[in-house]
Amino acid sequence: MLLKAAVFVVFLKLILWDLFLRCSSIDERLSITHDEFANSNELKFLAQNRLDLIGYEDKYINFSRLDDPLLIEHTKRILDKSCGEYVDVIIFMISSPDNTHLRESHRNVIGNQRIKSESRTLKNKYRHCFVYTVGYSGKEYLDEYVDTESLRFSDIIRIPLVESYYNLPKKVSTSLAVLNHFKDRFEYVLKTDDDTVIKTNILIPMIFSEFRKFDIVGYVKEAPCVIRHENDKFYMSKDDMSSDHFHSHPQGGGYIIRSSVVKGIILISSTTQHITNLKT
Known about the structure:
The protein is of the alpha/beta class. It has one domain (42-219, 252-270): Spore Coat Polysaccharide Biosynthesis Protein SpsA, Chain A. It has 8 helices and 7 strands, in the order H-H-H-E-H-E-E-H-E-H-E-H-E-E-H. Strands 1, 2, 3, 4, 5, 6 and 7 form a 7-stranded mixed sheet that branches. Helix 5 (140-153) links the parallel strand 3 (125-136) and strand 4 (156-162). Helix 2 packs across helix 3 (69-82), helix 2 runs antiparallel to helix 5 and helix 6 packs across helix 8. The longest helix has 31 residues, at 2-32. Mean pLDDT is 77; it is low at 1-34 and 54-61.
């Protein structure tokens, strides 16, 4: 009986959360249509994204929409509001549309001051800012809610692709490609996830001291083996990858990239097949 009651409570919470998202997205959308964004290009861009998402069946990144002037304008507004004209480090957090509570918790921690400074001495202060990159869920009410969140807080860049585990590599590469339009406005970009806490007071100064000579900094996985088990989600055949080892690369929840090498990474990503196995 207690188990049934517990299951019912969980089910009820899920229903209430679903209704909250539906009602919130409608109410906040109505309020936004009467403010500075009314009839704006950004509203048109966000609405079009929901109708014209980049397909997720393709094994290669589709960059067809990343030069869209409306996407560039949308990204510029976010950077203007959250980062100003220039920062030393942009920290972009990969975030799922569903993770509204994580983004809200993070905003509560960093407070209202969008652009932060960290230093080891009074002479050297390094400015950094936080933005989120969020794709689309395919659920209209949730996607509208996140659009509203982006307009309200000006810290979410909407990435025009469908959110999925398979699309995670695409999402990172696409986020970098979008930020690369503004490469003169930052020296480094730090990729991380929305459930990761960064000790910026330690890490940011280290980028400009101990790590200054490196173009990419992260936890390096040395020559990982290519997985040949067909049922594994990371399976790759000999046709896909002839070598038995990948190149060494940084992995995990975060890594730092110098802005001058971002373009090269994007070019390689655009012709590199991802390794997630769609059969699983």
